[in-house]
Write a structure and sequence with these properties.
ATP-grasp domain-containing protein; ATP-binding; ATP-grasp; alpha+beta; Dna Ligase, domain 1; globular; 7 helices; ATP binding; DcsG_Biosynth_Enzyme
Length: 312
């Protein structure tokens, strides 16, 4: 472990959770120690805690109530001194209409249609998934086999001021999703996520915090073709927002399907779970060291390297 030196600047780092999960969901339990081994000192705070505005660097990790307070949250991202991933990335990725941008860039995605408040919702034939375009943890997401209840749910979301996302239900979701984790723009590891949406017309089972649907996770070793889609999604997102892929401290690309026809379901750039507990201790230590090195790089980009002067 690196020891603190009085002549070296030690930035104040915050891992940002939310009031319901002020220290995250447990998957990031080792991050503070992983950062400390690099001489970086971090603490957990809810994102709306005033202390975050005094931090030199804020790392978004479990701010999972932002979807209900989006305007307030995006305003806060602009007031934090330095944020990773950066505020421009957060703003773009906070609304699933980013899927249209990725599809336009040639990334194979699950077909998606968006309907703002007041717009007539079109429900395709067959099973569909209806959810708010601003949402996390499957909150507000429902699966339907009948157009009537699907339209009713969509209109209820619209009445609450939400833009609605309608997708055909791809039965490959039943086999689970492959979550590809990237650190600093490079592929790191992957894990499997079991299906979260239950049978049509019913709601998922949520964690005690109420912020996300319970997930069943397991290790994964995806084929190259899936990683290729992940890289394409990351490259397209970085170009769209105007950042380098290496500037993305973390990213998670959720895919369905196998090597013959993988499809992007979601790209998570705000505060995705990274599946640390699906790795062996040695794998986890290596990956968390990579993340810590990415934090060091973010500090350097922000002028907060070890020999920076603390502002008064």
């Amino acid at each position: 472990m690196k020891l603190a030196r009085p002549d070296v600047f030690h930035p104040r780092i915050v891992l940002a959770g939310c009031r319901a999960l002020p220290a995250g969901d447990g998957d990031d339990a080792e991050l503070v120690d992983a950062l400390r081994t690099r001489g970086l000192h971090a603490r957990w705070l809810a994102w709306d805690d005033p202390g975050t505005l005094e931090a030199d660097l804020v790392i978004l990790r479990a701010a999972w109530d932002y979807t209900d307070r989006l305007d307030e949250f995006l305003d806060w991202t602009g007031r934090v001194r330095h944020l990773v991933n950066v505020a421009e990335v957060v703003a773009w990725n906070s609304d699933k209409r980013y899927l249209a941008d990725l599809a336009s860039a040639g990334v194979p995605t699950v077909p998606s249609a968006f309907f703002g408040p007041g717009e007539q919702v079109r429900i395709p034939d067959g099973e569909v998934v209806v959810k708010p375009s601003v949402g996390a943890g499957s909150v507000g997401a429902r699966r339907f086999s009948d157009a009537g209840p699907a339209r009713h749910h969509a209109e209820a979301l619209q009445a609450a001021g939400r833009t609605v996302l309608v997708q055909p239900y791809d039965r490959r979701v039943g086999a689970g999703e492959t979550a590809l984790v990237f650190l600093g723009g490079e592929q790191s590891h992957a894990f499997r996520k079991g299906p979260m949406l239950p049978s049509p017309g019913t709601e998922p089972v949520f964690d005690a915090s109420g912020t996300y649907a319970e997930e069943h996770l397991s290790p994964a070793d995806p084929d190259t073709e899936l990683w290729d889609v992940g890289h394409a999604a990351l490259d397209a997102a970085a170009r769209r927002v105007g950042v380098a892929t290496t500037d993305l401290l973390y990213a998670r690309v959720d895919l369905i399907g196998g090597r013959d026809d993988p499809r992007l379901l979601e790209l998570e750039l705000i505060e995705p779970s990274l599946g640390w507990r699906q790795l062996t201790p040695a794998e986890r230590a290596r990956a968390q060291r990579t993340l810590a090195l990415g934090v060091e790089a973010a500090l350097e980009r922000s002028g907060l390297g070890p020999f920076a002067q603390r502002r008064p």
